[in-house]
Every structure is written in structure tokens, then in C-alpha cells.
Design brief:
Length: 312
């Protein structure tokens, strides 16, 4: 007879994901503001008995987590970005539920831009959805550190491409290497980035987001007429990270995930179609995946990736 193997519950959390919230603010002059957020809330609490004994007494339900997202949105008196919204959700959980020891909130925002008329006058209540890039935020709040939440700003789905000033040479070759070296290729990627704010300080999240985005774009593209040469996506990613943390003094580090979106040269000389850096086969899979974390020199080094190190 096989011996009985013991097992222990070592970690648990629960909450709600993909909660989609739209909030409209209506001013007396007729001008309106709108935000659309997709929220994930995870909470930690001493509810081991729900897992080990089937005892749900004292449980804050996942349905409660969903409804708190809408309740907090209604309580926001002024339009705000995802960081302020995520912080407000975390604060409400810690104030409302004594058993909750920590709250993890991730929010991504749909970019609804205000449309303008032919005379360039911004419309009071007309918006156009811009895809696929989404601004985001990640917040971790613990009861014992109630006044020092961990806050990340984020961007997801920022798809960028340049048609020249990129190459890839000098890499190791083996029996499984088919990639030719080149100093002329298309370079495309979809940027996902999380940047960590210094704890215990007040931050202008909107200004930081604008600066980080501009800094990363500048390093990827270079000057408008000449561009800047990229010897690899790895090198360009590091330059983007350095520029990002330099753009706003309250940033400690940035985590970057850049898939290498491949455009394959279409070369068919037998059909009279030799490749002349002109026609490519656009692909989405498989793609390279490249990640790095860049940390300000004045900040103690921490495990990578930084966002995972902050989780519950």
C-alpha cells in the first residue's frame, strides 16, 4: 500500500479579473470626460480554511471584488489615470475589510481620444478609440505598509516599426542556425513595459507617462530625417529603458518585454521577383521574445523582473 503523502497550502489569493469599467464625468459647461478600464483585483487574507476545510466564513467574495471596482469608479470626483484609480481600489479594500492583508490591482486603460471637427475644435463628448496601445498601472498595497504602496505605470501593445536603420550581425552560428546576417532589415515590435515609481513620494502620473512614452519612441526611431542605427533589438531595448528612467526623476526601474515581429524577405528569383529590400512576408508567429529590466544606479538592485518581485 502506497504511503500517504502530506501536502501543505503555502500560498493563496483570490479576486476578479477582466472587470470592464467605463466612467463618464459630465461638467456643467457640456464638456464630458470618459475613461474605460479593464481591472484585475487579487486579495490576500487569512482564509486558508476555505481551501483546506471548505469553511467560507469571513470570505470576501470575488463578486465583491468586481463590485468594488464599480463603487470606487463612482466615488472618483475628478477624471484620473489608471494609477489613481488602482490606488483608490486598494485603499478601499484595506479600509473596508479588516481580514484583507494585501491587495494587488492591475488596470489597463482604453485610449478613447476626443475627436475634433474640421475646424480643429475638440468635440465635447465625441471620442475615437485608438488601438492597440493601452496605458496601465499596477499597484500592490499591504496593510502593514498602508502608506507606502508599490506603484507601477505601464504601456501595453505599443506597436512600433522602422523600415531601415536596423541589422543583426556577429551572433553565434551552429547546426541549428539558419538566420543570415544583415545590416538592412525591418525592425518591428510591440512594447509592453512596467516602470516602478519611488515609494513614499507624490508623483505626477500623467506627466510621467507622457515623458516615458516620448523617451522610448525617441530612442527607437531616432531623429526624423536620419534615424538611429539598431545593431539588435536588445541594444535598442536597453537604450529605451535608460531613456525612460532618465525622463522622470521619480522612476526607479523599468521592465521591458519586446517581441521581435518578423518581416521575412520575399525572394522568388525563379519568378522574376528577386528581393531588393522591398517586399516582405509579414508574420506574427513564431516571434522572438526579448526581456530586460533597467534600474537607476542610485537604487539597490532587486530581482528581475521587478513587477514579479512586488507581487503578493
Amino acid at each position: 500500500m502506497a504511503s500517504k503523502i502530506g501536502a501543505t497550502l503555502t500560498n493563496h489569493r483570490h479576486g476578479k479579473t477582466r472587470v470592464r469599467v467605463a466612467r463618464v464625468w459630465r461638467a456643467n459647461d457640456g464638456k464630458q470626460e470618459m475613461r474605460e478600464w479593464t481591472v484585475e483585483v487579487l486579495i490576500a487574507s487569512p482564509m486558508e480554511r476555505a481551501f483546506t476545510e471548505g469553511d467560507n466564513s469571513g470570505m470576501t467574495t470575488t463578486d465583491t471584488c468586481k463590485n468594488m471596482c464599480f463603487r470606487v469608479a463612482k466615488q472618483l470626483a475628478e477624471p484620473c489615470g489608471p494609477e489613481v484609480y488602482a490606488l483608490s481600489i486598494g485603499e478601499n479594500f484595506l479600509k473596508s475589510f479588516p481580514l484583507v492583508t494585501a491587495v494587488q490591482v492591475e488596470v489597463f486603460e482604453v485610449d478613447w481620444q476626443r475627436v475634433a471637427s474640421e475646424s480643429a475644435v475638440p468635440h465635447n463628448h465625441g471620442f475615437m478609440r485608438v488601438e492597440p496601445a493601452r496605458r496601465g498601472a499596477y499597484v500592490l498595497m499591504k496593510r502593514r505598509e498602508e502608506n507606502r504602496p508599490v506603484v507601477f505605470g505601464a504601456i501595453d501593445g505599443l506597436t512600433v516599426l522602422k523600415t531601415t536603420q536596423s541589422g543583426f550581425e556577429g551572433f553565434r552560428r551552429c547546426d541549428s542556425t539558419a538566420l543570415p546576417e544583415t545590416r538592412e532589415r525591418l525592425l518591428g515590435t510591440s512594447v509592453t513595459a512596467y516602470w516602478r515609481y519611488e515609494q513614499g513620494k507624490r508623483h505626477d502620473f500623467d506627466a510621467a507617462y507622457t515623458r516615458v512614452l516620448a523617451a522610448m519612441k525617441s530612442q527607437f526611431y531616432g531623429p526624423p530625417k536620419s534615424g538611429t542605427y539598431s545593431p539588435s533589438l536588445q541594444f535598442t531595448m536597453y537604450q529605451m529603458g535608460k531613456a525612460a528612467i532618465s525622463s522622470y526623476p521619480g522612476l526607479e526601474s523599468i521592465e521591458l518585454n519586446l517581441p521581435n515581429i518578423h518581416f521575412i524577405p520575399y525572394n522568388m528569383p525563379a519568378l522574376g521577383m528577386p528581393f531588393r529590400d522591398d517586399v516582405y512576408m509579414a508574420t506574427s508567429e513564431p516571434h522572438g521574445t526579448i526581456q530586460c529590466t533597467v534600474t537607476r544606479d542610485t537604487v539597490a538592485k532587486e530581482p528581475s523582473p521587478v513587477r514579479i518581485a512586488a507581487k503578493l
